[in-house]
Known about the structure:
The protein has three helices and no strands. By secondary structure, it is mainly alpha-helical. The relative contact order is 0.06.
Amino acid sequence: MSQALWEESPAWRWLVTQTKVSKPFFFTFATVCGVIPGIIGFCVMQLTNSSNPQLEAHLRKNASPDSL
């Protein structure tokens, strides 16, 4: 019971073996693991960040002094 469940998965074992054996695979996998979440985060920030001047003015008007 000391092993995690994913350690018994054939896909996990294949992934670990490939990252040990092949440096290009390792760097590709590491890049994908870093870039994909970065792209998703950037898209979420762009979708949720409003650039409406009226909304920004209203929020600044009602903001507390220490947040300005």
